[in-house]
Amino acid sequence: MKKKCTAILLAAGQGRRMRSSVQKQYLLLGDKPVIYYSLKTFQDSFIDDIILVTGNGDESYCRKEIVDRYHFTKVKEIVAGGRERYDSVYNALQVIKKKEMRIPNEDSFVFIHDGARPFLTEGILLRTLEAVTADHACVAGMPVKDTIKIVDEKGYAIQTPDRNSLWQVQTPQAFDTSLIIEAYERLMREKDGLAARGIRITDDAMVVETLMGHSVRLVEGSYENIKITTPEDLVAAEAFLSRG
User: Fold this and answer.
1) Measured between alpha carbons, how far is residue 83 from residues 29, 34, 51, 137, 210 in Å?
2) Domain count for the chain
């Protein structure tokens, strides 16, 4: 029997590095907002339900101008995000726990994706589905192309790690529902202690690795699966889109 698959799409970022008064997920890419593209991929895929996480106060706008306008019928909930990325994910996971979502936590998957990554594909989703089914936790990513340097506080290179062992992490990141919910509940209890130890949580895989001691598998994403963060990224995205 097919396991329930729920997508959490994160669209609550402020996008300060974009240097725009419009939040990056609502900027036009082609003739549609950036967030449209990953929603469309989820809508057309095996994903059963979508939880859209927006900035606080953007819920009505997203319902009218994104979800209803483009007929994204799989979007079942729109919730406000929090101060940090992990707060936004936690808010969405709390929705999944509700009875009305009818998701048996022990027998389902959650796919967490950044709304500012418009070039999600069916192929990426299928690879993450296969990996999460086998390994319970996986993330999309790609091997790095450039040499990476570790630097000290003064900016001097102190180490050059082997490039063959380095991947740039992307989204979606997929997990057994019960695993990711427990990991985030532990995070919310222990985040102050982690911060005091200098541990900064930057993605969902790190939550599972740090709080649950669970290994996370890397699966092939795409070099085009970029996150739109700066104006230069938007230029690159336009080029990818025009190429078809």
Assistant:
1) 26, 21, 18, 25, 21
2) 1
Q: What is the CATH number of the domain that holds 19?
A: 3.90.550.10
**Per-residue b or e along 219-234, where b marks 16 or more CB atoms closer than 10 Å to that residue's CB:** bbbbebbbbbbeeebb
The more confident residue out of 243 and 239 is 239
Query: Which structure tokens are listed for 239?
Result: 């080029």
Q: Which domain holds residue 183?
A: 4-243
How many angstroms from the chain centroid is the CA of residue 44?
18
Cβ-in-10-Å burial (0-12, 13-18, 19+) of 94 comes to middle
Residue 28's DSSP bridge partners are 33
Q: pLDDT tens across 91-119, in order?
A: 999 999 875 455 544 579 999 999 999 99
